[in-house]
Amino acid sequence: WRVEYRGPWNGGTLATAGNLVLQGTADGKLVAYRADNGKELWHFPTQTGVVAPPITYEIDGEQYISVNVGWGGAFALVFGEYVQAESLPNVSRVLTFKLGGKASLPPVTWTPAVVFNPPELTANADTIKLGFETYQDTCMGCHGLNAVSGLLIPDLRGSAFLWDEKGWEAVVRGGQLKDRGMASFADNISAEESEAIRSYVIQQ
Fold first, then answer.
1. Residue 77 in contact with residue 142, Cβ under 8 Å?
2. Rounded Cα gap, residues 116 and 96, in angstroms
3. Label partner for 126 (CA 20 to 30 A): which of 48, 99, 179, 184?
């Protein structure tokens, strides 16, 4: 048997001796199936994507199932268009279940959103092309394909630095935000390329 999912990057599977297969999904569910025929028996809304596989264990004769939920890996970084389209926040935590459990998750109080307020685009087509190529080579792996972030890392389309050429340069090449994980790319990106990236992101 097989199950069709809404998209890729679903979690690993757990099979139990009790004829169950459990798997978390990228669109925010933990699902239990009958192992022999694939019938869905139960699902729980996890409020965030699930990449990790569930585990099962026993304490004092009682069986538990735990799963680490939240986005991770390359997919959540690169394919921000999917993450934002699903409106799934990243809520990293461990969820644990047992038969007869009555706990529930608190309601989700926010959904991913990017506030767009770009300056007027003044760059020419050649500059934007250079920005696109440099962005895809150097920035995409963290900030997302086509400048759409999975929101584990800031979406540059909503950055206030789009309005500030010198501030952008100070971050990208000057390492101004290195203490927050954004290292200097002065050895990889020229000043011209840095400004071209800013123009490309404004266009996006």
1. yes
2. 38
3. 184
What pLDDT is recorded for position 112?
65
CATH 1.10.760.10 positions along the chain are 125-203
The CATH number for 125-203, chosen from 1.20.210.10, 2.60.40.1120, 1.10.510.10, 1.10.760.10, is 1.10.760.10
Q: Which residues of the chain have pLDDT under 70?
A: 87, 111-112
> pTM for the whole thing?
0.78
Q: Residue written as tokens 């000057």?
A: 174
Rg (CA), the chain: 21
Residues in CB range of 18: below 8 A, 6 or more apart? none
Per residue, what are the HEC states of the chain? CCCCCCCCCCCCEEECCCCEEEEEECCCEEEEEECCCCCEEEEEECCCCECCCCEEEEECCEEEEEEEEECCHHHHHHCHHHHHHHCCCCCCEEEEECCCCCCCCCCCCCCCCCCCCCCCCCCCHHHHHHHHHHHHHHCHHHHCHHHCCCCCCCCHHHCHHHHCHHHHHHHHCCCCCHHHCCCCCCCCCCHHHHHHHHHHHHHC
Burial class of residue 199 in the structure, from the number of CB atoms within 10 Å of its CB (0-12 exposed, 13-18 middle, 19+ buried): buried
